[in-house]
């Protein structure tokens, strides 16, 4: 059984033109115990509440979490906070976390922030 929920929460000054100012969009799906959160656009402080709600929903029945980040053009401080919170939540619950779609610049930014759960 698959469940999907999509949320669009554009922050101030965002527009659907692509690049670092692209409008934010997130899609949460659950399939066979794998929760996938696909994020696109800029992760700004204004949308962290939406992402925290999805993170807080991770509980029994979830065997793996996959964050698909290929649509995120830049990891600023808000994005690093978001990823750190997901890493901590999955660690607390003993659930593997896969970070997918990370470019070299994303991995470098996470390494500078001291995040050990970064993947390719």
UniProtKB/TrEMBL annotation:
InterPro entries: MlaB-like_STAS (IPR058548), STAS_dom (IPR002645), STAS_dom_sf (IPR036513)
Domain of life per record: Bacteria
Domain STAS: start-end pairs: 24-120
Pfam family, one: STAS_2
Annotated spans, Disordered: 1-20
Protein name, as recorded: STAS domain-containing protein
């Amino acid at each position: 059984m698959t469940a999907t929920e999509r949320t669009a929460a554009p922050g101030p000054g965002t527009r659907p033109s692509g690049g670092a100012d692209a409008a934010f969009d997130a899609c949460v799906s659950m399939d066979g115990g794998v929760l996938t959160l696909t994020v696109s656009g800029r992760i700004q402080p204004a949308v962290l509440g939406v992402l925290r709600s999805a993170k807080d929903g991770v509980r029994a029945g979830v065997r793996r979490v996959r964050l698909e980040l290929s649509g995120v053009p830049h990891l600023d401080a808000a994005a690093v906070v978001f990823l750190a919170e997901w890493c901590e939540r999955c660690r607390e619950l003993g659930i593997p976390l896969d970070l997918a779609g990370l470019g070299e610049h994303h991995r470098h930014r996470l390494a500078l922030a001291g995040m050990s759960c970064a993947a390719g």
